[in-house]
Amino acid sequence: MASAKVALIHCPDYEPDRLAQAIRRQVDLLGGIEAFVKRGDSVLIKPNFITPKSHHRSAAQTHPAVILEVARLLKDCGAKPFVADSPAWADTLACARALELVEPLEKLGVPIRQLDDPKKRRLPRGGPRVGLSSVALDADAIVNLPKFKAHQQLTATFAVKNMFGCVSGKHKALWHFRKGDDPTAFCKMLIGIYEHLAPVLTIIDGIVAMEGQGPINGPSRRLGWLIAGADPIACELVCCGLIDQSPDKLPIVRTAREIGFGCVDRDRIEIVGDALPAEPCRDFLMPELSPIKFSFTHICRSCVKQVMLLARGLGKQKNRGSEQMAQG
Q1: Which end of the chain offers a freer environment for a tag, N or C, measured as fewer CB atoms within 10 Å?
Q2: Each residue of 289-314: pLDDT tens digit?
Q3: Is residue 48 within 8 Å of 166, Cβ to Cβ?
Q4: Tens of pLDDT along 81-111?
């Protein structure tokens, strides 16, 4: 049976110096960044971008300070990081702009890309053929930066679900439609995507989490934790411990145990860094659950919404270009 190491670091806020120290300590406890990437590697930083909401008013997305610090860490070791996602409700640039990330990433020399150009790949363990972004497939390594969230379809999402963002655009909604009647089949697909893309490292932003009706509209909840490791299921189990939840309540963890993916035995997880708190957050608000399956009407509505958002984004880019030409 697999064993795993998880680095758990208490970090009360996103103050840059404190956060930098926390993330670098965390990665050092796992063997250093050189244990995961090599000089010259093209490294996809995969945040949780879902909708263009500011971090000042929502915990829907990975905090920009976490993304920036991981980008700096990768640059420092000679890697070539880029930030990319395929948000369900917008494009990557709109989400990055809402997080005030565009200019800081430009200064670091870190590109922002869309996870597009899907290529069909057969998932492990006899899974379906799924269109995965060639941008993700072509990266030398992936660093997964999910947000700690309650989730109204999957109870809570910590590590595995974030890689579903490598399924381009509205194809995600179609998989909700195709697999949503069977939660186990849906979770097998999520695990298969993670297993196929094989992120070298996951760092979960649990400093300010989302509770309640996540993954978009739940309230923010300050927890003050960063959770990291190479084994996503071990990370999920540690996250459950932080909010006093049984891992068996999470469909992803139940499915992982059923198919033998990851470290599903808490006793075989070595926690380094800070210990689990003696008193976990027992009043973390869990969601009222709704079906995983999206209706055909829901898919049509979401497609129309994304087209409108993309058109609006293109309009803004055109206006900015016109203004720059006028100024020139």
Answers
A1: C
A2: 988 754 445 555 555 555 555 555 55
A3: no
A4: 999 999 977 899 999 999 999 999 999 999 9
Nearest Cα residue to 197 out of 146, 233, 160, 172: 160
Burial label, 80 (beta-carbon count in 10 A; 0-12, 13-18, 19+):
middle
Domain ranges for the chain: 4-293, 295-328
Say which residues have a Cβ less than 8 Å from residue 97's Cβ, sequence separation at least 6. Answer: 52
Name the β-bridge partners of 46: 144
What global pTM score does this model have? 0.90
Q: Which H/E stretch holds residue 263?
A: none
Token representation of residue 106 = 């430009």
Contacts of 48 (CB under 8 A, 6+ apart): 60, 61, 62, 85, 145, 146, 147, 149, 162, 165, 205
Range 201-225 average pLDDT? 98
**Structural tokens at position 197:** 């893309």
Instruction: Provide the b/e sequence for 166-186 (b: ≥16 CB within 10 Å).
Output: bbbbbebbbbbbebbeebeeb
pLDDT of 322 reads 44
d(CA 269, CA 4): 5
Query: CB 63: neighbour CB atoms within 10 A?
Result: 21
Q: Is 146 left (phi over 0), alpha (psi -120 to 50) or beta?
A: beta
Which element (helix H / strand E) includes 104? helix 102-108
DSSP run (H or E) holding 47: strand 42-47
Just give the CATH number of 4-293: 3.40.50.11440
